[in-house]
Amino acid sequence: MAFHSLISASPGDPIALVESCYRAVEWLLSSHFARGLLLPRPWIDHPYGEEEITRLEEEVMPVIASFLARIDEIDQALEAEQEALIEAIQASSSQLC
């Protein structure tokens, strides 16, 4: 999955925010789960344990990854359309000269 560089993303880019959250949750899951730690949930009195972490890994993360993959597909299609348009404009302008 090719994620966009957060450095080049504008601060208001919602896709960059999703990518950043995905990476952060990935890191939290791997670092906490590997050490047997619970994920604190400050707004409820029950941290995420093994069952909830497994559900995040198996249910939530694949959905986010699919979303980001689909965004990449859409972006690639848009880039290809833009490149084709630029090539067409350059070809027509070279014919006029």
Characterization of the model:
The chain is 70% helix and 0% strand. It has 97 residues and is an all-alpha fold. The chain has one domain (14-96). The longest helix has 47 residues, at 50-96. The protein is rod-shaped and about 70 Å long. The N and C termini lie far apart (43 Å).
Helices and strands in order:
Layout lengths: L13 H21 L15 H47 L1
- Give the N-terminus to C-terminus distance in angstroms: 43 Å
Major sheet summary line: none
Nearest-angstrom radius of gyration?
A: 21 Å
Derived structural class:
mainly alpha
Can you summarize this structure?
The protein has two helices and no strands.
What descriptive keywords fit this protein?
single chain; 97 residues; mainly alpha; 2 helices; 70% helix
